[in-house]
Amino acid sequence: MSLALGEKLKIRSMIYVAAEPVPFFWPMRSFIHHNPLHGLEHLPFAEAVEKGSKIFHADSFLHRRIYQDYLAKGKIDQKKLELVIADFVKARPDIPGINLEHWLLTLITKTENPVMLANTLTDANDVQAVLSGVALSSSANISEEFLVEQLREQLLGDRPVYESVDALYGTEISADLDELMVKSCLDFFDEGQSVWSMPERKRGFFAAWRHVARRNVRFFLRRLHIKEILDVDDSPEGVISHVMQALEIPEQCWTSYFTRELARLHGWAGFIRWRSSAKHYHWSNEYPGDLVDFIAIRMTLALALLQEQGKHRIAYTNSTINSAMETRVQEIYLSHEMHSGQVLPVMAHKVEMALSTQAEKKIAQVFDEYIQVKRQHEATRQAERLRQLAQQAGNKDALMTLSGEDLSMLLESLREFEKQEGMCWLRGMEECAITRLTDDIKLAPPIKREKRPFVQSLFCIDVRSERIRRVLESVGDYQTFGIAGFFGVPLSFMELGKGSESHLCPVILTPKNLVLEVTPSAPSNDAAALSTLEKALHDLKESILTPFVTVEAIGLLFGLDMIGKTLAPKAYNTWRKRFDHTKPPTLLLLDKLTLEQADSVVRTVQRTVIIKALEQELDFKPENITDSIIRRLRECALGNCEDLTELTQLLGTDTTRTKTLVERLRDVYQINNSFADSQLEQLGRIGFTFDEQTNFVAQALSSIGLTDGFSRFILVVGHGSTSDNNPYESALDCGACGGSHGIVSARVIAQMGNKSEVRRRLHKQGIDIPDDACFVPAQHNTTTDEIELFDLDQIPPSHLFYLGRLRKGLTSASHLCAQERLPTLQQQPVPMDAIEAYRKAQRNSVDWSQVRPEWGLSRNAYFIVGRRELTQDANLDGRAFLHSYDYRIDPKRRLLENIITGPLVVGQWINMEHYFSAVDNEGFGSGSKAYHNVAGRFGVMTGNLSDLRTGLPSQTVLDKGLPYHEPIRLITLIEAPLTHAKRAIDAVVSVKHLVRNGWVRLMVVDPETAEIHIYDGDDDEWRSQPCSTVNEQTLLEESSAS
Amino acid sequence: MTEGLLLLVGLFLPLFPLSMVFNEVFQRIRIANLRVVLLLIWPQIGLVIAHTASVEIPDWVIFWALGSALLYAFRALALREVGVWTSFIATSTWAILWLLMDGQTDFSKVALYALALSVPLALLVLLSGELEKRFGAAYTGLYGGLALSLPRLSGVLVFVVLAIVATPFFPGFSVMMAAIIGLSPHSFFAAVTVAVIWLLWSWAGARLLQGIIVGPAQDEVKTDLSLNGTWVYSVILILLVISGTYSIGNL
Prior knowledge:
The structure holds 2 protein chains of 2 kinds. By secondary structure, chain A is an alpha/beta fold.
């Protein structure tokens, strides 16, 4: 059977739509912070988190007791809580004798557990009966139809059939299926971790799996009839259609059914979804696979497992489950209660025994008892919770006098409020954070400098830069700016010695230009020898028999390595570094090549290849290879010369060998015209034109408001981290550089800025960089706080005199920053000496047992777009992304639009990733690092087999089991007139939606009116308040300046 | 007469199907303290009868005891109610005592062995009571994540179960080693069977803990075991470890 094309496309489009809520998962080599609910950002925040929680079975808010603790510590604004509650109460009916506002405030601030329980059999009348101390009315017997309806809601529809079967019969098909699916994914998507790879991978995920599954003995032994299912159709769409029909899933439910299937392993699904869309990804091009393949494999396995269980008289299609519910409702109800974990513990044993007898009479007897006991239990517990609440609210008597109808309304109000409680706490928490920020804002005009600062430094907007900037400004005459860590230059980078490109820009951008790293140094023989040794060791470890011998022979060496790394990580690493291959000094190819230059490069490459070919094919010694041989060989290989006589003479061989060599040069060594053309095309991507370079530098400087008063040193500081044995290392690197170190971007912009041609063109644009101003690239190591200067050989000799002072300032800043930061990493935070803190920070970076080398971007809360003076005097505690911006030089709002399009969106992704990882670390985060294992070289799993863990590990967001990262939405502050900011936001549709839907909180501080405008996306309204730290002089200056 | 006495002893050092009496009695008693008393006294009665009447144990009884121990250990794997689990494991462990009544081991020593096997079970009964107080029943797989929500109770529970399954340094370990060492010269098969029974206990113990301790914590806050209570349990467990360590030297 083969499915019609239209049907196939329909299934493909259904899966495409079904996968929308599943977030992308990027390989961890370049960790990308992202919003786990990115696919739901079109919805208002409250609605999206409710939906996301259902899809991913995770919590979207913290537990009440944690919020209560925050409230007690003053981290939540109680007045805001009261306001939100008052708004809620306005929309609810009045209940006589009950002050609902007071009750609700008591509910969230004084009770630890939820008041409303998930009652299934009881109602307000039962609760009232218990409150009044009378027996439950027998007339309210629960009808079987009611129970069947409840079961239908829970078991049918878009719920995967095997989940329903598990809930009904206590089978473990879901777990089995997930395990088999993970194994299949590990086999296919492996990126070199396994020594033996899956056969036929080039044919694609489904085809390769199909090829193996049809011959899989383990499936046969488990009596899974995979082959019969696969024989139905060759295509994945055909198999999916067949299984869905076999399970009798109504077609209108297919899309939501697929979503639930994908959400069960959303890490793998997210990776496959990203991978199939990443056109530049080598592994994807080599071994293609998409979510249609994934669903097809999953459905095949699911049907096979269900059929196997079906042999034990288990219903596994929609109609048979439905029929079982209708004909054996008592047994099915009890069975569902038992196996779905809803059974009353006190009756669990009895129910289990009755079900095991399969005796109708016994089951009916236990069923009747169970229903009564459960109803009584629910009513009693509910009444008890209400009583406690009433007592805490000081209104116990009112509860007793409520009519049945009023009690029902009260219960409904409480239930509705508890559903919205999370948003209430969140808004209270954000209000507090907003107040803290508004108190810190200073609208005083910038102090006019008498002389230019000693150094101007451009740091990444990353929250970790806030500390080092503040400290650096305090140790000397340093002026700092914040700009996205790729400095506005999206580029693709090919590192020295690597054959693949990495994108150094936010993932929302696709770079066009390629930058090559080259070195004038000759390759080191030592390095080659060392890498050969490493390769040999690797091979020895990975083959079948040699590990045993290897352990005996050189195991002790590894033991010494382990002892050194464990007992004295810092000293041992310093010693070991001497054996590591050190990277030679490198240059970056930044300028576009002319056609002649590109042609020359191609010739040079061809020449090198020909020399290698001669060495390998004819055993020629390098000294015997003359230019004339190379030239002649090249011409022959390119087809420019047909006569091989002269070449044969030069080579000293016979014509046949020469002919063979030429053919091999064409076919194997790629010395041919078509390959040369493609090389020329690739070379065309290298570098930037002078116009491009000028624009990038101008844009970078203008966007931060640095257009005059340039210093002698303009430090361009990228950032990166160093840690050992840490799959999440990349998560600590620069998000704006695609999860890589920021130094390359810093070197690129510095190199551009130092070019005289670029400066000449900048001068024409009104940006006059003096001749003695020198851009110096540097890297801030966020784990150690060290700032290392790069490309010092390109500094003018006249500047060398000042280098000592610069280094001293940077070192002092590093020490002070470590001193401020290190106590937060200690079990018991105690103040420590700056040198000691710095030393400990360095140890963290090389300690392989350290699960938390730094806090990374944890506790991020603010995104501030404005002049440095706005918050320069405030200690923002490493919680703010700081982007420098001066609205006065951006009348058309282009710069602001760029800032909110790129950096703000990246900041929001980072913020949301931290938010969700903190509120439910198991659901949205990746759990503890201690149990992680690297999977396929692109992700981590918990234990040896699990879903790919997305989000952040507990060590990044939790401290002693409680959130270290205080989860709030990103509070974005823009310093600009309100209309200016509003228009910029409205002009960028994606950001407008983020603001309107409440994914970021927006504040605008208007320097011209000295007012702070706060937008509340949840209520869709602006409110304004005067800025407390402002005087008339400021207003005057701002008005005149604008 | 000897057969009659053997059957009587078989009631208290339970042999299947006589073991059903103990299990029925144990499950009918709902008061934790009474269950504790029952666990401590029941095997001692059997031992006293056997000792007083100087009953000689024929070989076939040894195999009967092994069969009973194996049966109950195997059944315990599938149990979820902690009370039933306790009685089944008790039945299985006490059946092992038959292997030690070889006439060469002192009565007092066997009586201590019986006590050493019963005390952890008695502790588990008390802990079951604590679980019932909080959740309505001591039942696995219904409310997981106790390690996070009730760390003290979970910690004690883990060590008590370890003691029950005869982990090294607990006295049960010495009992099992004594049984294996005693049997191995006569019947390798019987010694291996004891080892298998031991393995099944560990498996059953692991399943019990897995169904209660691990998993995500429940949202609803429950009161943990009191500090004093934790100390009492800890002291008893430490005493068990000391006695277990001491008894290893006598093997």
